[in-house]
Design brief:
The protein is α+β, with helices and mostly antiparallel strands. About 35% of the residues lie in helices and about 25% in strands. It has one domain: Glutaredoxin. Belongs to the SCO1/2 family.
Length: about 210
């Protein structure tokens, strides 16, 4: 996580490792719900737990957005960046495909959000061109490295610049998860990458119905 201090990067790596271990433990828990095998890439947190904390970022329209703006409805967050060539577009397509599969009354209560891991390039104007390509309700959030760093750390997101061939151009190596937050802002589930829209929609429906 190139724009976090070294100590904070270590914390972020440890948090990510904890998330991954939680997912593995969930997979091999013989006491889990009998229907849960349909969602093998979901790591759940019983009762929810605080995640993200307070923040003030900027959306694709240049307007300030705080964590409080997303309270009262469900929020599905993905961390990525507009210059991403493959993983981010694929996972964002999965996100919006899953939303399209939800019943209308459920879909309208879920806010899709992209939080940038590349604040140096992801300006509001760039996100304003990028996010409408995926969904009319997708909110793109960016900010300064100082604003985004604590948010990435709180979610255990790993993000590092990768240069190739001596060029000044870079890509971002980053973790790729979906985070489902309840209307009170508490983390309810983390969905691993590589799901089909149908699998993600099923997991979202189940989590929301169980709340």
């Amino acid at each position: 996580m190139s724009f976090l201090p070294k100590r904070d990067r270590l914390v972020a790596y440890l948090v990510l490792a904890s998330l991954l271990l939680t997912g593995v433990a969930w997979l091999f828990d013989p006491g889990r719900d009998a229907t849960a095998h349909a969602y093998p890439a979901e790591a759940s947190f019983s009762g929810g737990r605080p995640a993200g904390g307070s923040f003030v970022l900027v959306d694709q329209d240049g307007q300030p957005k705080t964590d409080g703006d997303f309270r009262g409805g469900w929020t599905l967050i993905y961390f990525g960046y507009a210059s991403c060539a493959d993983v981010c577009p694929t996972e964002l397509a999965t996100m919006v495909g899953a939303l399209d599969l939800l019943p209308e009354e459920v879909e309208s209560d879920v806010s899709p959000v992209l939080i940038s891991v590349d604040p140096e390039r992801d300006t509001p104007a760039l996100l304003g061109e990028y996010v409408p390509q995926f969904h009319p309700r997708l909110t793109g959030l960016t900010g300064t490295p100082e604003q985004l760093g604590p948010v990435l750390q709180a979610y255990g997101v790993v993000a590092e610049k990768r240069y190739s061939g001596g060029s000044a151009e870079y890509s971002m190596d980053h973790s790729s998860f979906f985070y489902l937050l309840a209307p009170d802002g508490r983390l309810q589930a983390v969905f691993h990458p590589g799901l089909s829209p149908e699998a993600l929609a099923g997991g979202l429906s189940r989590r929301i119905a169980e709340s």
